[in-house]
Specification:
8 helices, 195 residues
């Protein structure tokens, strides 16, 4: 009986993961960071399957890996929630809506490309997308400041300056941040060993 109950709970979780990602992906416009915001709302705030710090870590990993951040984040969240099957459910839910929408758009491309109403709608959506991305940046940035680690705050500030003022490629910023993180862990281990 317990095995059957566990299987039922796992199936329900996988279905909720798939349906959640399908819904998020179908109604999210503006790229990966927008979908990450909705994933945080769904899986951190509503479902409590992962915590905020974990979502921040998963977002950093998703951004660091090659490929679309939305799919990368779905892989990581799916794996964290349900293992291999969770990863498959999350990725399927994430890729089905764009595949259907892009297939329809490519079929009617000539009509969409020259339609002034479609162009106006897309221009209007850009402002909304910018607001959602700003919300992600602020909520994740506040988490760094709440941690009160001078090194994390310094990395955040340096990354912002490097990106905004010097237009340094984000890959180099992520690699530098990773090296600093590795250095910090090694230094902490050495410090603990010396005690």
């Amino acid at each position: 009986m317990k095995a059957r109950e566990k299987r039922r709970v796992k199936t329900k979780t996988l279905w909720e993961l798939f349906a959640g990602m399908l819904y998020i992906s179908a109604f999210t416009f503006g790229g990966g960071f927008v979908i990450v915001t909705f994933m945080k709302t769904k899986f951190v705030d509503e479902k409590h399957w992962i915590d905020e710090q974990e979502m921040l870590d998963l977002t950093a990993l998703a951004q660091s890996c090659p490929g679309a951040i939305a799919v990368n984040a779905a892989i990581l969240v799916g794996w964290r929630v349900g293992g291999w099957l969770g990863m498959a459910a999350a990725v399927l839910g994430t890729i089905i809506p764009p595949m259907v929408i892009l297939s329809a758009i490519s079929f009617f491309y000539a009509a969409f490309a020259s339609n002034p109403y479609v162009a106006m709608v897309l221009r209007g959506m850009q402002a909304g997308v910018a607001a959602v991305i700003l919300d992600v940046v602020c909520s994740l940035g506040v988490k760094v400041f709440k941690g009160r680690s001078w090194l994390d705050i310094a990395i955040l500030a340096a990354a912002f300056v490097a990106t905004f003022f010097f237009k340094i490629n984000v890959v180099y910023i992520i690699l530098a941040s990773a090296l600093i993180g590795i250095g910090r862990v090694l230094w902490m281990k050495r410090k603990e060993a010396a005690k």
